[in-house]
């Protein structure tokens, strides 16, 4: 664990969240303070490149690679819009057209924005990662000790860096979550170079350089605030991977088997024996709630051919942070998959990658009422497929009850795979029927949606059919 705690010494915080404070129209200030603002304060504390005095700057490179943090901050704050006022203008030379309040001086309009009054004057940023090295930790502590304020200069702070949860931090947590109700800017790799470029231009052109001219410094991430309704835990995809070259969709069984073996092998190498939730042995009656290994094909479009471009590792509800983090580490450390008919390079997918869209999380998680199988769904029982049976499948998969469905032995969407029994059933196991299915729910359901008896191997993976942002 790695944490940074901030104590607001005056119990207030003032900052311009999006560069609109000077318009006088801002009514809500920034809360909680963004992780990118904290990073910028640490950068300014000791500079970069040759301007570093007590550090060498390598600790900033470690910091900017961190994922979005959990932010412990009280949600109940008071936003006080400050009144516009005129202040003395810092100008040289003789002053013309002066006024009585500032004799022989010029004045200019100042719009200070919004001051946030805090009930709890502490904020903690927490990362569930391996702590930094001792040298990096000391350097970050030195930078934190040199930070005098966060936001504007009338928001003095005391910052502490640690590898454990700080005492007296708020219990409420802002959690990074897709589709959250709040948006918070975070630091990302490359921000140091952008800040250096911004500083160099400021040295040349002075006040003509503004932060708004560098939109690449803002990386908005959706967060769920403490006041938002608690989401139902339907499991989580802990790793999205991209294949070096596309693989035929007919290789799904071999590919997901290689993927599973590689995850277990890497987990054994990095963290020791993998838990039963990863391999499914010893789960007893909880067989429906084990890890799933997905292959992500190109389906649903006119020219789709069902080729696999990515992989995803899904962990079931109830699995806590440590197993999920360890499984993510294992998946991200895979560099190549080799097996029967499989020899392909693998790499973690970058957040800013848009192509191939088949490997993009949005393709499989976009909320939709209609979902259709990309790979056929294996029947759980040998019986007629009706709405009651589909409802049973959805209950086992952690999905709401469908209101309608249609099924077919052949694909229902372009590019979906029409597989032979030998490509679906495992050797030495009794064969089960399989079908392509389209499900209709009463309300939009966020993916991934996977149904049937083979969902741990990626069979029954569905693609959203409603047109929208996810249909690109």
TrEMBL record:
Designated name of the protein: Type I-U CRISPR-associated protein Cas5/Cas6
Source species: Candidatus Synechococcus spongiarum LMB bulk15M
